[in-house]
Specification:
- The chain has two domains: 165 residues, Glycogen Phosphorylase B (Rossmann fold, 3-Layer(aba) Sandwich); 175 residues, Glycogen Phosphorylase B (Rossmann fold, 3-Layer(aba) Sandwich), CATH 3.40.50.
- The protein has 14 helices and 13 strands.
- The longest helix is centred in the first third of the chain and has 25 residues.
- The protein starts with 7 loop residues before the first strand and ends with a helix.
């Protein structure tokens, strides 16, 4: 009996293999490879976790002029974009023809060449939206091109979907936690500490709002017994330098410390509260992980926090940029007016009820239906 050949999928990611989008892609490779032959086209191959994945049939790497618009676009990126667009359009067409690809999946909303190539080659195409270009005009142009070229447009939250133009092809597949991951996080027990430790987790640059955390620290510094820890790699050195100068000027260095990012399960054992002070979040996996671990989350109204947090019951939602309100909540926790153990239990239950299940598994199920 002749074996039926597996369908072939080309995954395209413009990222470097060290963030949330890439972790989703790694999940997808693991899950897809059980049922399909998976090929990968990725940008900036050096130090890329994706290029070492043995479950991929073949990895294609494009480095210079990668054809992706940056989220915070500048003139140089705008000028080089057409060069990368043309180069990668032809490269994608070449891969589709050479490998006889059946389906193309773009793991970014900042690129349009996968959709254009799939359209020209007559192949099925879907794009996963997990970030967005800040410039509204360019965001809408890129979205509309993807809308024309793609068969499906996948968003990871209703919050992100609302930031884009309407399309009948758009659908939401929410990111969730693997059951094994959830079980590991729920095993974390918050330690009783004399000093209340407030954590912020994520890369250090303007969008993540580390400057707001510093303002909050200043608001509560008179109280004593409250420390702040920021876990993350420095993405914007100039922004970080300004923050450090402010910390020194305000004499806050004794209550704010910075550490490199490490395993989330280790971080969540070191903090009592997690702050989300981002100017914008397309999802915000940190909030989900912290809540699963029974850690109280205080968040601006951004990303998935707006869909999962019931204010005062399983966490706290604060109007964007209202650092005084965040400081007030922290002081109430410190003074025993808020029971964060009970809020943590409620948070854990909310995650178990709504956010168990891998994004990749949910997506693959829709591909095989």
């Amino acid at each position: 009996m002749m074996a039926v050949p597996q369908k072939k999928i080309l995954l395209i990611s413009p990222s470097s293999g060290r963030g949330g989008a890439e972790s989703i892609l790694l999940e997808m490779i693991d899950t897809l490879s059980n049922q399909f032959d998976v090929y990968l086209l990725t940008h900036r191959g050096e130090n890329n976790l994706l290029t070492d994945n043995r479950k991929v049939k073949h990895v294609y790497i494009t480095k210079l002029f990668n054809g992706a618009l940056e989220i915070n676009i500048d003139l140089l990126n705008l000028l080089l974009f057409p060069v990368g667009l043309i180069k990668n359009f032809f490269l994608t067409c070449y891969i589709i023809k050479k490998e006889n690809i059946d389906l193309v999946i773009g793991n970014s909303s900042t690129i349009i060449y996968p959709g254009l190539a799939a359209k020209v080659c007559g192949k099925k195409m879907l794009t996963i939206f997990h970030e967005m270009i800040e410039n509204v005009f360019l965001r809408n142009v890129v979205f509309r091109i993807n809308d024309i070229c793609c068969d499906r447009l996948i968003f990871n939250s209703k919050f992100l979907l609302a930031k884009f133009l309407k399309s009948k092809k758009a659908e939401v597949i929410t990111i969730g936690l693997h059951r094994d991951k959830f079980n590991k996080l729920t095993a974390i027990k918050r330690k009783q500490r004399k000093i209340l430790t407030i954590g912020q987790i994520g890369k250090i640059y303007r969008t993540k709002g580390t400057d707001f955390l510093v303002q909050i620290a200043r608001e509560v510094s008179f109280e004593g017994g409250i420390n702040f820890k920021v876990y993350g790699d420095i993405l914007d050195r100039q922004f970080f330098t300004k923050i450090k100068e402010f910390i020194n000027d305000e004499k806050l260095a004794n209550i704010i410390e910075f550490e490199m990012y490490k395993d989330i399960e280790i971080i969540l054992q070191e903090v009592d509260v997690v702050l989300v002070t981002s100017r914008f979040e397309t999802f915000g996996m940190v909030a989900i992980e912290a809540m699963a671990a029974g850690i109280t989350v205080i968040s601006f109204k951004v990303g998935i926090a707006t869909e999962i947090i019931e204010n005062g019951k399983n966490g706290f939602l604060v109007d964007n940029y209202d650092t005084k309100k965040m400081a007030e909540i922290i002081l109430n926790i410190k003074n025993g007016k808020i029971d964060i153990d009970q809020i943590g239990k409620n948070a854990r239950a909310a995650i178990e009820n709504k956010f168990i299940g891998s994004f990749a598994e949910k997506l693959v199920n829709t591909l095989t239906e």
